[in-house]
């Protein structure tokens, strides 16, 4: 098989990146609604089947920044193909899994493909000219965000019409074809960093991420005060401190700590942590709320498919907001979009606290939250991309995605603890518990909005880069992306 010698068109490149990133995002949420079906089919326990989600989360959190960094070193398009092949191999193994052990292994292999996110953003930065990059980043962010929600919507109909194993067969076919297209169509990286992988940093990063995420994700089951959870959280914190110290002293760090201390990076990462917690909380528990039987005194007794349809307004609004985000940036900065997105999510959470008795109220709140997600996702990625040298785009965006995942794990775990505390005699959650949970995600969104106001302006970002001596223009014949040197130029026709 031979590569095309001529550079592929940017539209084809973007289509390949969108297919890979979109389907990986779907795999994050596609399995959640059908865990009881998997538990019954594979004859396992409820506690064991939850590892189908946990194994995927842990694997993706480890490999996303590592493969992003390797992509910066050896070529983003090469690691993109490797990541897509990992998703395809994991999907094949999961579709054929005869027992829960094989399925868990398959989910670990699928999680390796998490690097498609940072690699895709890095390739966009390398290949797109200055006036198109914010729009491309915004569109990609919208596709990723919609992909995550689309899994909740499509899982029910697919399982009802076919079988839960088709939740793996369909991604296998699409992602395998995408891997071939990536090999043939995505140009080789014109921008690469130098050095080598810091293996001590890699081991420490993997260790503290596993300890932290495992402790947080299992806290609702094991109990926040259990020795296992407290031990894992303490181990994660100690590993984090050790990792920062090792990376700060390394000549070839996996993640450059100077980059992480940059005002444009750490403030955006703080927003990602808080906003990820709110977003994953509403993803996980708004469908659960509407599926609650009416005998509980609230809820609508909706099926998985009906609950997914109530999430459609969120998917539509987040996609539209993500698409227009980059085009708005010349007049509505990424910083302003981030603050606006978090404000809209705050309003959505507050509306759920006081009004959740009718389906239209749920749909309206979901649509409003979707607007917030679309603006926030696009602007976060654009802010990170513009704050780091082009040779560190993969590592920086990978770490931002990881921090958002950490926030999501925390938000989902805390929401689960709130909702399941003090159930009714019939075992169903109380309405007051959901109300308290919606109040929590409102507070999280409000805190994210406050953090968004700390993000520096575009001019200050460039000034800080120059002072730190880390500003590096892309080594390519294309114009230097506007996100590297300042505010975006008007788009003719983020994240």
From TrEMBL:
InterPro entries: MFS, MFS_dom, MFS_trans_sf, Tet-R_TetA/multi-R_MdtG-like. It comes from the Bacteria. Residues 479-495 have a biased composition (Low complexity). Keywords: Membrane, Transmembrane, Transmembrane helix, Transport. The lineage of its organism: Bacteria, Bacillati, Actinomycetota, Actinomycetes, Micromonosporales. Residues 13-460 form the Major facilitator superfamily (MFS) profile domain. This is MFS transporter. The keyword Membrane applies. It is a multi-pass membrane protein. Residues 466-495 are annotated as: Disordered.
């Amino acid at each position: 098989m031979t590569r095309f010698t001529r550079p592929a068109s940017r539209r084809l490149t973007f289509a390949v990146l969108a297919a890979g990133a979109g389907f990986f995002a779907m795999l994050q949420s596609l399995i959640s609604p059908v865990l009881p079906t998997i538990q019954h089919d594979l004859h396992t326990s409820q506690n064991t089947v939850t590892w189908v989600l946990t194994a995927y989360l842990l694997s993706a959190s480890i490999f996303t920044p590592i493969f992003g960094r390797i992509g910066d070193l050896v070529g983003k398009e090469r690691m993109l193909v490797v990541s897509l092949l990992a998703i395809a191999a994991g999907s094949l193994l999961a579709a054929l899994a005869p027992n829960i052990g094989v399925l868990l292994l398959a989910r670990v292999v699928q999680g390796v493909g998490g690097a498609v996110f940072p690699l895709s953003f890095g390739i966009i930065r390398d290949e797109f000219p200055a006036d198109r990059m914010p729009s491309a980043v915004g569109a990609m962010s919208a596709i990723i965000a919609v992909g995550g929600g689309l899994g909740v919507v499509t899982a029910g109909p697919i399982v009802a019409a076919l079988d839960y194993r088709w939740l793996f067969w369909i991604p296998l076919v699409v992602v395998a074809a995408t891997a071939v297209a990536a090999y043939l169509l995505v140009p080789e990286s014109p921008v690469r960093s130098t050095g080598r992988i810091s293996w001590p940093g890699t081991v420490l990063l993997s260790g503290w991420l596993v300890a932290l995420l495992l402790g947080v994700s299992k806290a609702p089951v094991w109990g926040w005060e259990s020795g296992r959870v407290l031990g894992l959280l303490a181990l994660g914190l100690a590993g984090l401190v050790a990792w920062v110290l090792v990376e700060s002293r390394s000549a070839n760090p996996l993640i450059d700590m100077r980059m992480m201390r940059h005002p444009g990076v750490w403030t955006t990462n703080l927003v990602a942590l808080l906003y990820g917690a709110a977003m994953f909380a509403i993803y996980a528990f708004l469908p659960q709320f509407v599926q609650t039987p009416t005998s509980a005194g609230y809820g609508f007794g909706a099926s998985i498919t009906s609950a997914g349809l109530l999430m459609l307004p969120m998917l539509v609004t987040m996609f539209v907001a993500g698409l227009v985000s980059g085009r708005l940036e010349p007049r509505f900065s990424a910083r302003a979009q981030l603050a606006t997105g978090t404000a809209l999510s705050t309003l959505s959470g507050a509306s759920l606290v006081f009004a959740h008795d009718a389906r239209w109220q749920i749909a309206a709140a979901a649509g409003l939250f979707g607007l917030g997600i679309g603006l926030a996702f696009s602007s976060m990625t654009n802010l990170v991309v513009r704050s780091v040298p082009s040779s560190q785009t993969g590592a920086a965006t990978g770490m931002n995605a990881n921090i958002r995942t950490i926030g999501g794990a925390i938000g989902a775990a805390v929401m689960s603890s709130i909702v399941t505390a003090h159930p009714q005699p019939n075992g169903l959650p109380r309405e007051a518990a959901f109300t308290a949970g919606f109040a929590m995600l409102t507070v999280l969104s409000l805190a994210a909005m406050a953090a968004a106001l700390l993000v520096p302006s575009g001019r200050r970002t460039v000034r800080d880069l120059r002072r730190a001596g880390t500003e590096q223009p892309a080594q390519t014949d294309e114009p230097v992306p506007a996100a590297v040197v300042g505010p975006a130029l008007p788009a003719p026709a983020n994240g």
